[in-house]
Amino acid sequence: MPRRPVIIILITIGYVASPFFILLQGALVHGIPLFGPGSIAARLFFTDIIILFFYPVVAVAVFSVRKWGWYLFIAGVLILIGYNVFVFVLSPLYNYILLVLYNLALALVAGLLFRKHVIAPYFNPRLRWWESEPRYRIDIDIVVRLEKGDAAGDILDISSGGCYIELDHTCRLGKVYGLRIRCMSHRVDMRGKVMRVDTAPSDKNRYGVMFVKTDADQKVRIDSIMAQLNKSGLRNTERDYSELRPNETLGTPERKSTKPRYIINHSAIIERQHEKYWCRILDISMHGCRLLTTKEYNMDYTYSLSISCMKNELTVDIKLNWKTNRQGAVEYGVSFIHQTESIRVTLKKILHSLKKIGAQDRLKSASPLPDSVLDEKVADTPYRAVLFLKKLVGK
What are phi and psi of 138, to 5 degrees? Predict the structure, then answer.
């Protein structure tokens, strides 16, 4: 499982270690030993002991990532700042600059926990991504360099000699295009010639592309992709010996071996009341996925989602949790509902295949949700004070 955000871990470690450094600082200021008879530890007042004990309590509160923990952390910062000022008034031996710097450090740490990406999980359990199952980014696509600019598409299957792609834009038969293939953790720039043109069911265009003028480095990168796809069991064995050629000596058909081809389709269809719309899966887990589509959907409705991914197909009911606009398209966060045992088995197969080919884990990123979604989630929390100040500054 992914760990908590780094900032939360760092703050927790800082608060756990603070009592020791406070004792060390006090010993240095007063010129007395750290431990033993007559040491700083032996001269602590009851209030000092309570404050030192308060640090690990606040550390547990921060690490818990719960609403009460966030409030306890903020209260703890205020108490510590007030206590530092109180101690400074009673003991002139404390350096004024040191006091200011220490309180500024506390204020800075408190400010870090006011950042929307950090405060959001404290007030919305759904955003505690480290407590949920891994979600895998399906990162297998292609960019075709056209005359009018780059066009992104999907690789439906691929071999070391070519690929079969789906694209919104039109390519000319027989023309050579520049290609950028992104498959798992690999990226390779190549040139490909369009050998076949088909029409897809979703009004897209599908092209059979042959790689041309490949150099040694490109061949190595493509072979690495093929090796990972082979390990994941995506090889289309039905095609490997689909072509025949006559044997001139025996007069009998002889099977012609072709390059292994691997099916890596990852599209989906949203359906409601017999209306079907194509969409693309961005990432997927056992309990949901992210979709990208050009159509706006009603968030209150329940839809059926047909998924085709890693040679597995399934249909599952879904609920739309959130949406955000992305350059002419709409991205949706989706939850799978009414899962049967058959659906769970198929989902496990899909995730297992993605894991074997090294699909990236989206939850390792700093921001699991788009900024617009996080803004909505934290708007009704104490973060609204930050939003208010931002509006004032904007004015």
Answer: -90, 100
